[in-house]
Amino acid sequence: MRNFLSAVSFLTIVPAGRADVPPGRAAMFFPLVGAILGGAGAGLYLALGSFLPSPITSLTVVAFWAAISGVIHEDGLADVADALRAGRSQARMLAILKDSRIGTFGAVAIVLSILARWQALEHLTTDRLIEVFIASQAVPRAAIVALAWISRPAGTGLGLAFSSTLSTGAAVTAIAQGIAAALFCGLRPGAAIILGSYLAIRLAQAYFYRRIGGVNGDCLGATEQVLEISVLILFTCRNCSW
To answer: What's this model's pTM, rounded to 2 decimal places?
Structure first.
């Protein structure tokens, strides 16, 4: 229970956890926390959709997910967008990743992320809304645990603290939850989500290794955002029989 509450505290603004629980130990419950956020988002979507226009309902859900998570993943995406521009040295990129300020590239990345998720929710073509909402929040959080588990850390920040306390058991448990959340959407879309997530994890690892020599907390946040967008966009396909 302490590990679960710590996961809630780590991934959301809800002060439920214990400060003495290492983030790697809490990681086994990251997908479960994501599933809860996804279910809450689905409930909000269905409730608001009964009396508000669809665009406002979809945007409200995206805003809810960002706010309840303390924009931790959006912040990682922004830092990566600012730091990993072409032509910069590894030392310079690592220095920018440590900087709490958001530059032009970071701001644009956040705007594009919000727009992508908003429009994806607005144009979903499936009737499995609850399943899709849950998978969109659970699978990316399982993926960042997997990425941290298989990667060497870069720098000395949160990414190092996370990776160094992440056990094989916790990682496997989180991955299993992510797979279950994907298959909750159905066998075919679930298989597509699992395969796509695996490829995204491997590509992200290779890219971050090449640019900064490893993976840090911002890299994990950026990966979460990319996968969250990808899962939602998958279910906007008009010619897919999901």
So the answer is: 0.93
String of DSSP letters for the chain: -HHHHHHHHHHSS---S-TTS-HHHHGGGHHHHHHHHHHHHHHHHHHHHTTS-HHHHHHHHHHHHHHHTTTHHHHHHHHHHHH--TT--HHHHHHHHH-----HHHHHHHHHHHHHHHHHHHT---S-HHHHHHHHHHHHHHHHHHHHHHS-B-SSSHHHHHHHT--HHHHHHHHHHHHHHHHTT-HHHHHHHHHHHHHHHHHHHHHHHHHHSSB-HHHHHHHHHHHHHHHHHHTT-TT---
Rounded mean pLDDT for each run of 10 residues along the chain, 242 residues in total? 90 79 89 98 96 96 97 95 78 81 92 98 94 98 97 82 90 98 96 98 96 93 97 92 70
